Amino acid sequence: ILFLLINIMIFKALRQPELFRGIEEKVNEKKHSLSQVIFDIYREKLNQYMSEKKPFLTPAITLETLAKRVDIPPRSLTEVIQRSYQQNFYDFINEFRIRESEKMLSHASSHQKSILDVMVEVGFNSKSSFYAAFKKFAGMTPAQYKKNDSML
Q1: pLDDT tens-digit series, residues 108-136
Q2: Comparing C-alpha atoms, which of 87, 84, 50, 51 is closest to residue 67?
Q3: Which of 51, 53, 85, 92 gets the most CB atoms within 10 Å of its CB?
Q4: CA distances for 26 relative to 9, 23, 55, 102, angstroms
Q5: How many CB atoms within 10 Å of residue 48?
Q6: Handedness of CA 14, 17, 21, 23 (dihedral sign)
């Protein structure tokens, strides 16, 4: 009987796939735990803290550390980052670091600084992770960016 039922379900699924389409859509829907008001407050709080205090310059920054400093529960902070920036925590931090390194490489006084000096100043510990993140967010290597900026 079980074998017969399974075969009937497979037959129905092949003949009428629309019967099973709603199942996947409901599974993929994510419910947000934060109300829109709380979400907006947390997002503003995070954005203000990131621009004023620049915690991303600290190499050992973690989600828990940032959550404690901003006074947002870690799980809520993760939701704010994912919903606002469509990124995970590490990409969020690295994008801020890369934007800061672009500013440093663009300034005339920083042309005396090496790329490795800038890398350390913005919080990266590894040359390979810095170059990979720079390429991801800026679309070119730091050397190419510095060269392009000096041509302008």
Answers
A1: 555 678 899 999 999 999 999 999 999 99
A2: 50
A3: 92
A4: 20, 6, 38, 42
A5: 11
A6: negative
Contacts (Cβ under 8 Å, ≥6 apart) of 38: 76
Cα separation of 98 and 39, whole Å? 26
How far is Cα 102 from Cα 88, in angstroms, rounded to an integer?
21
Residue type, 43: R
pTM, 2 dp: 0.77
48: Cα within 13 Å, side-chain hemisphere:
9
CA distance 50 to 85: 13
* Residue 145: how many other CB atoms lie within 10 Å: 20
Q: Phi and psi at residue 124, in whole multiples of 5°?
A: -85, 145
With contact defined as beta carbons under 8 Å apart, do 22 and 52 qualify? no
Tokens encoding 150? 């000096």
